[in-house]
Amino acid sequence: PKVEDYATNAYTKFLEEKTGIKLNFYEFPASGGDEKLNVMISSGTELPDIISGFQISKANFLKYASEGTFLDLSPYMDEQSYWFNDVKKKTKIENLDSWLSTADGAKYFMPHIIEMDGNLYGGKAFINKSWLDKLNLKMPETIEDFKNVMRAFKTMDPNGNGKADEITFTGSNGGGWNEKPVNFLMNSYIYDDYEESGLGVDENGKLTVNYMTDEYKRGIKEISEMMQEGLIDIQCYTQKNTTLRTLCSAEEEVVGAFATGSPDNLFPAGDERLLHYVPLPPLKGPDGKAYAFKTDYSVACSGVITKYCKNPLAAYRLLDFMMSEEASIMTHYGVEGPDWEWATHGEKAMFEDLGYEPRILWKMAYGSVQNSNWFSGNPAFRASDISNTIAWDGDPLDGEYFKAKALNAYWGKGPKEVFAKNKMLLDLSDQEEFDNLDVEIKTYLKEQIAQFVSGKKSVDKDWDGYIKDLKNLSIDRYLELAQKGYDAFNAASE
Phi-psi region for residue 474, left (φ > 0), alpha (ψ -120 to 50) or beta? Predict the structure, then answer.
């Protein structure tokens, strides 16, 4: 929906001119592409030569690959790569083979790789610095400090309107990026990965279920007490992102702190109240823990060649060219000149604090409907010297700059190694079993944690029943499958 017309798109014309290949398009729906593909494959409908631009569930991907619907690209990668060879030499991802492989060692897709440091620490929170200053309060460093600040925000009328309308620490339960206050605070007790898996990694590479530990239990109990006292907005578990945005952009300033990875999205463009908020660093808990939520650089399946392709070598060379720097810049930033320019001497990079110099001055509004590129819906390699070298235009209200500066509060505070569900290599049967368990366990977990935090359930009285229920939901088998897939993932890069 962000691309006006693929047939006339500037990136399409660029690819055709560079490769001599004429491109025709079969468009899948913006949502539900996976379902439509499944219907086409099940009915034997002939597929396009290349499928790109939307994610296929892992189980379905393995199913289609095992049935021969997708071609194994390993021979092409080994013998026909040009730009992809540069990717393998240049990327910061040490175990790229693991990301590309399936359990049988085949490689069925070309990736979309984004080495953007701004995406590594998305679990942020922001606190109203103007309120801190007005009440002569220091930036909280511990959970206890935070409680005292929230009590002051709640009772001392920091917005000065004579009303008890201040909201302490809030967020949303959907529609935004990492907007759950409970997840942010839990990292003061044990590393919490925002419901991605809930599994931790010890120094020996063994996985643990974090949400069954004594540390998690203590965190839930203390966070529940904060919510009962009104130090956390109880609506954060029910309201959507649109409601949070309404609260932040209301005429009267009422929000003391909020959790989000994208604070700029909560305020109207140009609203200077955004500058009232500063990053809230990870808070030290009772045992001195203060983790920041961390993710890895992104490696996504972004291009497969189907068995219907009559010239797979040409298809592969096209996908290979998309991995070049020239093509990777254009598919995200647009056309040189109208959409972006090379940075000139004297400009500053968004990520200058991380040691990057400016290369690209981006003029296109991200997310706007345009006809300059494919909105990154294809194989590409945005290396760190592309992704992290965007020049800053000097506007302090620039959302990307605001987030880039906020990184300083979180950088290096995540665990050395984090587990994620895409760091597993399982065969089809195990993957389907894992996915089914994951849905059941996560559904139960979200429901129970909400009840504990809101006070509907008591940690003292109901925790043992919660653990028993997780056992009955086969949490041990879930952990066993995750460990099996994680071990295979790590072995594939050795």
Answer: left
At residue 455, what is the residue type?
A: G
Would you state the pLDDT for residue 175? 82
For residue 331, report the phi and psi dihedrals to the nearest 5 degrees. Answer: -70, -10
Nearest CA-CA partner of 216 in 122, 146, 285: 285
Task: Provide the CA 116 distance to its chain's centre, in angstroms.
Answer: 11
Task: Give the number of other Cβ atoms within 10 Å of residue 41's Cβ.
Answer: 16
Please give the span between the terminal C-alpha atoms of the chain, in angstroms, as a whole number: 41
Nearest in space to 19 (alpha carbons), one of 304, 323, 374: 323
Q: What is the pLDDT of residue 494?
A: 67
The residues with which 228 forms a beta bridge, in sequence order, are none
Report pLDDT for 292: 97
255-259 and 167-170 beta bridge pairing: parallel
Question: Which segments of the chain have a pLDDT < 70?
Answer: 494
How buried is residue 53: exposed, middle or buried, by Cβ count under 10 Å (0-12/13-18/19+)?
buried
- Looking at residue 29, its amino acid is P
DSSP annotation string for 136-166? T-PPP-BHHHHHHHHHHHHHS-TT-SSSS--
- Alpha-carbon gap, residue 117 to 251, rounded angstroms: 34
Return d(Cα 84, Cα 5) in angstroms, integer. 28
| DSSP letter assigned to residue 62 | H
Residue 393, pLDDT score: 86
Q: Which of 362, 385, 371 is nearest to 114 (CA)?
A: 385
DSSP 222: H
Q: In 177-254, which ranges are E strands?
A: 199-201, 207-209
How many other β-carbons are positioned within 10 Å of the β-carbon of residue 2?
A: 15
355 Cβ contact list (under 8 Å, min separation 6): none
